[in-house]
Amino acid sequence: MQKELLLAIGDDRAASYNLRFLKEVFDSFCDLKLTLFYVAPRLTTWEMDERSLVPRGTGFDEFKEYTKTKGEKSLDDALMWIRDIAGCSGANVSTKVVHSRKGTVRELIDEARKGMYDAMLLGRKGFTWFEEVFENSVTHELLWRDIDFPIWICKQSPASPRHDVLLCVDGSAPALRMVDHAAYMLAEEPRHTFTLFHVARSGYETARSGRVFDEALAMLAEHSISEERIELKMVTAKSVSRAVLKEAVDGRYSAVGVGNHGTGSPNRLREMFPSSLSVKLLRQLTDTALWLTR
Question: Which pTM value belongs to this model?
């Protein structure tokens, strides 16, 4: 089945990370159906129509010029990369430019839901010390939203190509949805393996881990993933994030997949907040993509 993906395109270099990641991961890259989506920001200099929240007067003229010089150039550069570097015809690629009426994050979410894409992809640069303290990025804001679709946050590709995915399993429904998603996306990409990774608490290794792995294995079986492509790993550690980061570095995976909530969310209030694991991985993974589901 053809995969359909929404790629957020921006003005900086990180916007191309999602394309480069896809080319590295999918042998069938040219067969993917891609929508390149550019959100033109609402500038403070624009005079707005209060009823429709669109630029008017000189603001509308500035909006048209902005999308022509910024948005269209970014999209043209992405299309050129797909055709000239990746060697694809571009027949499966479409482009969209929208004016941000509700904010970039809200526009991305609305498009993802309307288009029913298999995943949304964003490129992300590494953190500076300032961002560590004052985080206000699109990717960080998405973690806090009530989203119902997978997000891939792509970092700069390492010098040598990588493969395989690390799937963090803890028995939660979001983690199982991530296993389901990863298996669906990569079932027809046989060079990738799936490592099911569970961080156990001391004293609970055998009883709990067996059930966690059994549920995840059943999900992989539903997508006809062969045993040769599956590996199970369990470690005992006080810090889940440190254990995952160490495994991600040691295993040189293309991506780390996690559910955006931990085990057993007991109430709706807790379900509204992202897991500390997803936030820490977002900040500390350097050249490995982060896949998130809720």
Answer: 0.84
